[in-house]
Specification:
The protein is an alpha/beta fold. Helices cover 35% and strands 22% of the residues. The structure holds 2-succinylbenzoate and magnesium ion. Magnesium ion binds next to loops.
Length: 369
């Protein structure tokens, strides 16, 4: 695909309900969308950065800056047939994985469309379906959490993940487990604890969790390995894995036994596949994480989640759960047993509704300008 032009769009989408984690509460989302055009193809990518640097250091504004100043100049008016070669144009740029991924995701869509393939097939996917799990933010009370869990179980979600933070953990999980003894249940701390709080995780061992996601610091592997040695429940790494190299080191020292792959966090699909492959070789199951994406990002995630080692339910609830406006057609919705059909149409497999982009637009920029 020849990249004749790139458009960046920033949308502001109010959230139907705030999404609260240990690091803060999101009530609306600034969404950065990338569109590449050339050879008659429109290719789309969604950036997973948030307004504030609370999940990682990246933000919507840093991503815009890095895209405009450092990534786009190297790729505009060039032709690419290979993602690895594309990545070489910015190989010297350290970090800024979410900015890189937003651009790379668009090229994945574009190259798959050029090849006449679905994103899933183009990425080497083998699954026809992806199991949907759901991530539930911190609620006002334990009874309210139980009611929310019950609702999502009725909808068919195959795994329930509850956000935890100090003071909102053992009691909560004890009660949810008491009410739902059989469900696949996990917790996600988003780095809110330190190793001194290991006794809390020893207590959680009692509840048969599928895994405990990112209990310790966002940039730590060493303490996670120490904690994993002290508890029975598997640790799942999210924030701490930004590359295949991090994955190799995490496996080597036993920092966790499950990996949440978020393509944005690791710089895109190419690195995601390398992590997936290394994890498979080492018998580490992976699953596809989410960053409150719109339908564009969710469609991309479904393509990725069709790879063979994505053997645990993904964080892919439908975007209507978060946002009133749907920006893709057809909307992606799981069936009542919590299964998504992997899109089979060209590229990400859904049409992007430009009218809905216009309606929620904050700014747009066109390159070359
Ligand atoms: O840690 O997985 C996380 C949302 C924003 C930032 C971090 C995380 C999350 C989620 C959302 O858990 C999952 C989803 O997109 O449905
Ligand atoms: Mg997480």
């Amino acid at each position: 695909m020849k990249i004749d032009s790139c458009d960046l769009f920033e949308l502001l989408l109010p959230m139907k309900k705030p999404f609260k984690t240990s690091f803060g509460s999101e009530t609306s989302r600034r969404i950065l969308i990338v569109r590449l055009q050339g050879d008659g193809i429109s290719a789309w990518g969604e950036c997973t950065a948030s307004n504030a640097p609370f999940y990682s250091y990246e933000t919507v504004d840093t991503c815009r800056y890095i895209l405009e100043k450092f990534l786009l100049p190297g790729v505009l008016s060039k032709s690419f047939t290979d993602i690895g070669v594309f990545r070489q144009t910015y190989a010297e740029i350290k970090g800024h994985n979410m900015a890189k991924a937003a651009l790379e995701h668009a090229l994945w869509d574009g190259l798959a469309k050029e090849q006449g393939m679905s994103l899933s097939a183009f990425m080497g996917g083998t699954r026809q379906r992806a199991a949907a799990g759901i991530s539930i933010g911190i609620q006002k009370s334990i009874p309210e959490t139980v009611a929310v869990v019950e609702g999502f179980l009725k909808d068919g979600f195959q795994r329930i993940k509850l956000k935890i933070m100090p003071g909102w953990d053992v009691e909560l999980i004890r009660e949810v487990r008491r009410q739902f003894p059989q469900i696949a249940l996990t917790v996600d701390a988003n780095s809110a604890y330190t190793l001194e709080q290991a006794p809390i995780f020893k207590e959680l061992d009692e509840f048969g969790l599928l895994y405990i996601e990112q209990p310790l610091a966002h940039n730590d592997l060493i303490d996670h390995a120490a904690l994993q040695n002290m508890i029975q429940t598997d640790i799942c790494l999210d924030e701490s894995i930004e590359s295949v190299e991090d994955t190799r080191k995490a496996i080597q020292i036993g920092a966790g036994r499950v990996i949440n792959i978020k393509s944005g966090r690791v710089g895109g699909g190419y690195e995601s596949i390398r992590i997936h492959d290394l994890a498979l070789k080492n018998n580490i199951p992976v699953w596809c994480g989410g960053m409150l994406e719109t339908g564009i990002g969710r469609a991309y995630n479904l393509g990725l989640a069709s790879l063979p080692n994505f053997s645990m339910p993904a964080d892919i609830s439908p975007s209507f759960r978060f946002y009133a406006d749907e920006i893709v057609d057809p909307p992606l919705i799981p069936d009542n047993r919590g299964q998504y059909a992997i899109p089979r149409n060209l590229g990400i497999g859904v049409d992007v509704l430009e009218k809905v982009i216009e309606k929620n637009l904050v700014w747009r920029a066109h390159f070359p300008n």
